[in-house]
């Protein structure tokens, strides 16, 4: 009986995902041609509705937080999940910001008139149906909607079970605003999240879903990228390195390292590994270690190597530490043989997100920039600067660590494709 019930529930879940994907596909053409002023007005009205209905949002969110804590959720996860009035205002502010950004749809990237008189141009167009798989934070629900709408895409959102009630309320509010504008509620939909299989249903819905973007832990991203038959854009696992060269300004290097590690340890652009040039004096290497420890960062490294230099309280590093995205006040630290050693270490362990160097040698900086393979390379700057807003791109859907279509912060232009339009007057090809 239980097996039959489970299989029936599973079939119902799959049918719901596919039905919503078909509904999204059906409204994609209408959304793709929506004028910019209409999109902007809808975004501003959605921001206003979120503020007006803050009490409803907080009530829904309180249910999620209470359920999470009852199930043993850690306080750090509960904090990521929790909303208050100021956080709702921040989410609404994000929509207003997107409304103020330039609309990429219709932008002419290049064009010319062919010798036979045909006028050709390449223009930006929406991708279509955008699937988003993400974890805990309810703000991603609204961020994804806002960026999808402005770039002319329909949003299919598969949030986590832990934020189910919050996400349902947020999407209901967004759909009400769409309805008030005479637009289909299906321009944004929330997918079921009772089982992990609903993710698989989304990422294999070829012909209905045009792209899927995972945002969250390395485990989530890998599961999506490895199992998707729909095109997937890999985002954001960040094992970011910071290399301190023997010719660095040590005070500035330490300040950049601490900023990258301690500013917000839980984000993907946080520094997770420090690489220190073996040519530095032992006292300077110890200074780097102690500066981290004084900032309450736990240093994982080779105890014998660092101990021989005079460093203490080192946690013995295991093989997995060099690949770790800690997202906490921990850092792996290795002594390497100059910039060449740093580049070799990064090549082995990098996730291709952000890699940084501190040096005053122009040739060393150039070599690092040329040879390190990552979405962002920072020369004498903190890893924390890999961010769409910092780049002047406005809001972002995530940081792409792949090499096709989009790489680095994914803002509005990266959520579009292109179309070639050729306009003739009856020409035929000889």
TrEMBL record:
Pathway entry: Amino-acid biosynthesis; L-proline biosynthesis; L-glutamate 5-semialdehyde from L-glutamate: step 2/2
Any single Pfam family the record assigns to this protein: Aldedh
The Aldehyde dehydrogenase domain, residue ranges: 10-298
Domain of life: Bacteria
Function comment: Catalyzes the NADPH-dependent reduction of L-glutamate 5-phosphate into L-glutamate 5-semialdehyde and phosphate. The product spontaneously undergoes cyclization to form 1-pyrroline-5-carboxylate.
HAMAP family per the UniProt record, alphabetical: ProA
The protein, known as: Gamma-glutamyl phosphate reductase
Native species: Corynebacterium mycetoides
């Amino acid at each position: 009986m239980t097996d039959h019930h489970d299989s029936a529930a599973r079939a119902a879940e799959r049918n719901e995902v596919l039905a919503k994907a078909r509904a999204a596909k059906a409204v994609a053409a209408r959304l793709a041609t929506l004028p910019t002023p209409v999109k902007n007005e809808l975004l501003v009205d959605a921001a206003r509705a979120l503020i007006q209905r803050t009490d409803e949002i907080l009530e829904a969110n309180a249910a999620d937080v209470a359920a999470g804590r009852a199930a043993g959720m850690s306080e750090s996860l509960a904090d990521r999940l929790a909303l208050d009035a100021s956080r709702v205002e921040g989410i609404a502010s994000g929509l207003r910001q997107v409304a103020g950004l330039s609309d990429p749809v219709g932008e002419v990237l290049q064009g010319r008139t062919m010798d036979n008189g045909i006028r050709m141009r390449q223009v930006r167009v929406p991708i279509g149906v955008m699937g988003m798989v993400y974890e805990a934070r309810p703000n991603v629900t609204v961020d994804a909607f806002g960026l999808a709408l402005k770039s002319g895409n329909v949003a299919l959102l598969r949030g986590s079970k832990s934020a189910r009630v919050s996400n349902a309320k947020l999407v209901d509010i967004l759909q009400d605003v769409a309805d008030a504008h005479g637009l289909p509620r299906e321009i944004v939909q929330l997918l079921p999240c009772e089982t992990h299989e609903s993710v698989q249903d989304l990422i294999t819905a070829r012909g209905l879903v045009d792209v899927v973007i995972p945002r969250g832990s390395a485990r989530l991203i890998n599961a999506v990228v490895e199992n998707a038959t729909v095109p997937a854009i890999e985002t954001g696992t960040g094992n970011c390195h910071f290399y301190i060269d023997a010719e660095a300004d040590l005070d500035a290097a330490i300040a950049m390292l601490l900023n990258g590690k301690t500013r917000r340890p839980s984000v993907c652009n946080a520094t997770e590994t420090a690489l220190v040039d073996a040519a530095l004096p032992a006292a300077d290497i110890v200074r780097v270690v102690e500066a981290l420890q004084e900032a309450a960062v736990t240093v994982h490294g080779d105890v014998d190597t660092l101990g021989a230099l005079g460093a203490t309280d080192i946690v013995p590093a295991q093989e997995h530490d060099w690949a770790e995205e800690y997202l906490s006040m921990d850092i792996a630290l290795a002594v390497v043989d100059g910039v060449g050693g740093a580049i070799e270490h990064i090549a082995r362990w990098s996730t291709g997100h952000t890699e940084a160097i501190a040096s005053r040698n122009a040739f060393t900086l150039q070599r690092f920039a040329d040879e390190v393979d990552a979405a962002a390379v920072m020369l004498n700057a903190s890893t924390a600067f890999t961010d769409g807003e910092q780049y002047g791109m406005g809001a972002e859907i995530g940081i792409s660590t792949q090499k096709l279509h989009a790489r680095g912060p994914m803002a509005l232009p990266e959520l579009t494709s292109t179309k070639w339009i050729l306009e003739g007057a009856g020409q035929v090809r000889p």
